[in-house]
Amino acid sequence: GGRLFARMGASVTAHARDQDVLTAAHGLVVGLDLESEGKLLDGFPLRTPGERWEFEGTPVSDGDSVYVLLRYHDEVRSQFHVASYSIESGRQRWQQRVCAAGMPSRGNWQEQTHYLLTLHEGTLFCNPGSGVVASLACQDGHLNWIVSYPRTVLEAGNARQTGQHVFRDLVPPLVDGSTLFCAPPDSDRLFALDLSSGRLIWQTAPGIAGDAKYLLGVVHDRLVASGDRLYWFDVYNGELREQFPRLGSRALDQPRPDPAGWGRGLIAAGRVYWPLEDKIMVFENGSEQVGWQRKQEIDLAVRSATGGNLVPLGNRLFIVAHDRLYAFQNDR
Predict the structure, then answer these.
(1) How do residues 9-39 score in pLDDT, each as one tens digit?
(2) In whole angstroms, how far apart are CA 293 and each of 62, 88, 210, 214, 245?
(3) Which residues contact 228 (CB under 8 A, 6 or more apart)?
(4) 271 falls within a domain
(5) 90 belongs to a structural domain
(6) With 0-12 CB in 10 A as exposed, 13-18 as middle and 19+ as buried, what is 30?
(7) Which residues pair with 273 in a beta bridge?
(8) Rounded to whole angstroms, what are the CA distances from 213 to 42, 170, 312?
(9) How far is CA 102 from the centre of its chain?
(10) Whole domain around residue 90: which residue ranges?
């Protein structure tokens, strides 16, 4: 407790082939002691092993170690490694190569990604947008299993052939019970894997909920995903049970639905909170015949706020918008 870890610095995780990596700025990982007014912990910040290495998303920690995804890039391909560092000294304990793959830019432009790890009961799960999902042991980085899935090709400059799934971000694998749910940015499918073996349990058909950018969680045997729309999937077979609004999916060059999502929602007390640009819609589960119903709307415009990613903390709700942070308190 009392420690904060963050990835900071340059946001580029893969440089264009014509860029000089020797002069490029790089990201770093900081560790702060919140009980000492944010003083840097010993051994921090963490720096990448070399000029072609970058840290990916925000680290995760179990209180003893901090774990982070590393990316090594050449002109065309990227390698992804998971590394463990001591919280007390910043010393690297282990580094495990997970995979190598061609990436969307193919070295033609910079990439800015933020792939996140999932930490669950001594195990790390990663899905770095490279056609694989992997499970690693926190103790020594041993690969428990690694599975592949069909990737979709990014058609640069062709909006009709590019699905909205390429914009998935901040969507680490989601653990619920003995199941791992995944929404990769390089696949137009959602799928569920067995947590212990990586065995495929189900996957959606191509294009189903292609605009879904976030996995919010599981409630009442439903996996809730959101993007332009809100989706409820059967956790056991992956069937799409409900969506809001009810109209079908769209291509990138088509208008957004009305209403349309505006950031990552959340699940709390059995309810789904879904942010729009000027309000938050609250859904509750009714009878089997009625399904999920809109029960409340929280007006953000009258509070001089906008939608964004929702983060609960105690009796407060934080909204992380594109250029500001809002905090609201529940007095009821």
Answers:
(1) 988 888 887 777 777 888 999 999 999 999 9
(2) 38, 49, 23, 20, 12
(3) 164, 211, 250, 256, 257, 260, 261
(4) no
(5) yes
(6) middle
(7) 266, 282
(8) 37, 8, 19
(9) 20
(10) 1-138
pTM of the full structure: 0.92
Long-range (24+ apart) CB contacts under 8 A made by 30-35 are 30/5, 30/6, 31/3, 31/4, 31/5, 31/66, 31/87, 31/90, 32/3, 32/4, 32/5, 32/6, 33/2, 33/3, 34/2, 34/3, 34/4, 35/2
Domain membership of residue 152 (yes or no) is: no
Q: Is residue 326 in some structural domain? A: no
282, 300 contact by CB (below 8 A): no
For residue 26 the two structure tokens come to 């790089």
Burial 40-63 (b: 16+ CB within 10 A, else e): ebeebbbebeeebbbbbbbbbbee
- Which residue from 240, 200, 247 is spatially nearest to 223, judged by alpha carbons? 240
Q: How many structural domains compose the chain?
A: 1
Give me 246's structure tokens. Answer: 């009810």
Q: How far apart are CA 165 and CA 194, in angstroms?
A: 23
Query: Using one digit for the tens of pLDDT, what is the confidence trace for 190-215?
Result: 999 999 999 999 999 988 998 999 99
Tell me the residue length of the chain. Answer: 332
Mean of pLDDT values over 226-234: 95
